[in-house]
Amino acid sequence: MRITFLGHAGFLVETDAAILVADPWLSPSGAFDASWFQFPRNHQLAALVQEKLADGSKARYLYVSHEHKDHFDKAFLDSIQCRDFTVILPHFQRKALAEIMAGYQCQDLVLASDQAEVPISGGTLKLYLDDSELNRDSAMLLKADGQSFLNLNDCRITDALPVIRREEGAIDVLAMQFSGANWHPVCYDYPADRYEAISRKKVRAKFHGVAQAVKTISPTFYLPSAGPPCFLDPGLLDINFQPANIFPAAWSLTEFLDGRFPAAATAWPELMPGDVLDVSAGTVLAEGTERVDEAGYRGYVEAYAAEYAPFFRARQQRYGTWDPGDLLQRLAEDLRGKLAALDLHDRILTNLYFGFTDAPGAMLRVNFPDRDVSVCRDVGESSFYRIQAPSWEVARVLDDRISWEDFAHTFRMRLSREPDLYQTAISAFLRLDAEDLNRFCAKILSIESRQERIIKEAGGSRYAVDRYCPHQGGDLLYGWVDEDRFLTCPRHGWRFDLEKGGACPDSVGSVHAACLEED
Predict the structure, then answer these.
(1) Which element (helix H / strand E) includes 515?
(2) Distances (CA, A) of 370 to 336, 348, 373
(3) Residue 428 pLDDT more than 80?
(4) Whole-model pTM?
(5) Domain 450-516 falls in which CATH fold?
(6) How far is CA 283 from CA 139, 251, 255, 291, in A?
(7) Would you list the domain boundaries of the chain?
């Protein structure tokens, strides 16, 4: 088995009988409305992937893990000339990915459910799905030539890894995300010290999740993937150079792993796009032409951004500022549609304010319990959630040029909230389209209906807690305890203070911890 790193979360896997391309993000137009770009550049590998997918001597397969645009590069997929290959997609409740690809001209299209095993020439491909609406993703386990490659990409199924390891046996290669991808705290109005503290905390949690996965799976190789994107838009460029944020470089992760596992049997090479791991030989071939190290990072990004400066200047002139009055009416209609689909609206007691960064003044106030959307000019309360975004970007959502989920990943908005607590339902309301909100609410109610309790030990005491995380249902049976009191969810790193009844200090969730009397 030979694995060529395509950059970001993309891989080209060659076995004796098959070629599998996974999540190729290769278009030079970036992703999420040209807010994210590949780091390092990997556009030059498009020709290699085209060539491999045209190799008639082997069976060929294309796997797309989920619909986020840094994984699902439709522009590149449409550019492929020879398409006598099989497309393998996860079978999510949301049909958007399947519907988009239904008309794709290829040899065959396979929709695989959770833990479905798809036969491929000379082996098998098994998919693991996380279909929780706010996180809709899949992981793949490829077995061929007596070797195995478990690629988790962004799929946060850390709590399932002990079962996978037990059922599937030894794993030769593991790949998984190590960088953040959320608008918190990137887009929030925090003082610099608070912003950096939150960022460092999130990076530590992400690195700890990788370490837990490496410890559980014990692969021969761990490949850092789904790392930080590059931000080339002049309005976002500074994110690349912040002292601390949620986008750590691969060299920071490998330094952490070296310290965490000084005598590990697992190797974690820093691959550049085009580098090849020969699994059988246990060697890495440095064939990538774009190579960046810590010392050359700033110069590389600045030169990269200079190439795209004309594009962003032209776009700024083309989009401009929309009429706020007309746009507010259209936005209000869209938000009312979302409210009608949000069955849990009466749980949200914090009003949401939505305005435009380039047209200050009038904005919308969303009153969730009353399902009311009205125009206002001020935030007239001490408890609130506020979002502001460029008018042209909101217009692109309302014109169906990008989805609300894509909008959330553009990072072109500014947010603030008081109190500074995460509320899952508000996040879902902003990030999901109306058609997805009913399924989200059903998922939350399903998690809450699970009455199973487990025992966790911390600080010399035993606690009975809910087994499933209230956020998105992560299995806390496989969670760990930090600082002798915080039960940590293995999926998204939520922490619950066992000494305070299991409350989450950063959100409104709780695992309802009860301290048990010692015998």
Answers:
(1) strand 514-516
(2) 11, 10, 9
(3) yes
(4) 0.93
(5) Rieske Iron-sulfur Protein (2.102.10)
(6) 24, 19, 20, 18
(7) 2-308, 324-443, 450-516
